[in-house]
Specification:
254 residues; alpha+beta; Aminopeptidase; 9 helices; 35% helix; Leucyl/phenylalanyl-tRNA--protein transferase; leucyl-tRNA--protein transferase activity
Length: 254
């Protein structure tokens, strides 16, 4: 089956997302959790050991350099996860969203090897995390730390983690009701014209995603941060792009 990109974006706009039962399953079904995990952008819990790993830049972190590789890595079976919900139609759908500028990835590298990261969908000031993966200790934590810092810099207001896990809770994620989630979602999507038809597919994620991801993708940014950015003037217009800066931002209070 094929998931229409406009239908997929419209589903996110009402709090719904697709899943499958197995990597090789053909069917896709739509999920609307009654309780939603989110990462408060000023509430990321960064431990002393994780801060040290990030500051010392044990891993190299990029964005949108290998979206297909991250999705493929997330979909792979692992000893603690014999199968995943990312079937082939879902993989194709998100690769298409990436090609038209709505899906983004954060990659974590050890040398030239891709060892972790995450991907999701950006729409307005919301980022909907889909999946993250780690093939080295702390790789997924590093990816989420960088994502959270870049979301803060870009002026995002909602980082959706979908379902709560012990891993996410240890990093500061909280669980909220469906009603509270939809209220936050409405604010984050204010001004996003998904009802305007297929023309919206040509617009991409918008300025907030550009601010968040372009510097890590190697693209130069000529504009200053948005007025909502919590960064001090000591940061460049590209925002936090080193491990030291990421830790500094995550330990700031709003």
């Amino acid at each position: 089956m094929t998931i229409d990109p406009l239908v997929l974006l419209q589903a996110y706009a009402i709090g719904v997302f697709p899943m499958s039962d197995d990597r090789e399953a053909e069917e896709v079904y739509w999920i609307e959790p009654k309780r939603r995990a989110i990462m408060p952008l000023d509430g990321f819990h960064i431990s002393h050991s994780l801060a040290k790993t990030i500051r010392r830049e044990r891993f190299r972190v990029t964005a949108n350099r290998d979206f297909a590789g991250i999705v493929r890595l997330c979909a792979e079976a692992a000893p603690d996860r014999p199968s995943t919900w990312i079937n082939h139609p879902i993989e194709r759908a998100y690769r298409h969203l990436h090609e038209i500028g709505f899906a983004h990835s954060v990659e974590v590298w050890e040398g030239e090897e891709l060892v972790g990261g995450l991907y999701g969908v950006a729409l307005g000031r919301a980022f909907f995390g889909e999946s993250m993966v780690s093939r080295r200790a702390d790789a997924s934590k590093v990816a989420l730390a960088w994502l959270t810092a870049r979301m803060r810099f870009g002026g995002f207001t909602l980082l959706d983690c979908q379902f709560m896990t012990d891993h996410l809770r240890s990093l500061g994620a909280i669980e909220i009701s469906q009603r509270d989630y939809l209220q936050s979602l409405a604010g984050a999507l204010d001004g996003v014209a998904l009802g305007a038809g297929r023309g919206v597919l040509a617009t991409g994620s918008g300025v907030w995603a550009e601010l968040a991801f372009s510097p890590l993708a190697g693209d130069a940014l000529a504009r200053a941060p948005s007025d909502t950015s919590p960064l001090s003037p000591s940061f460049t217009v590209s925002g936090p792009v080193s491990g030291h800066d990421i830790v500094q931002l995550l330990t700031q209070t709003s």
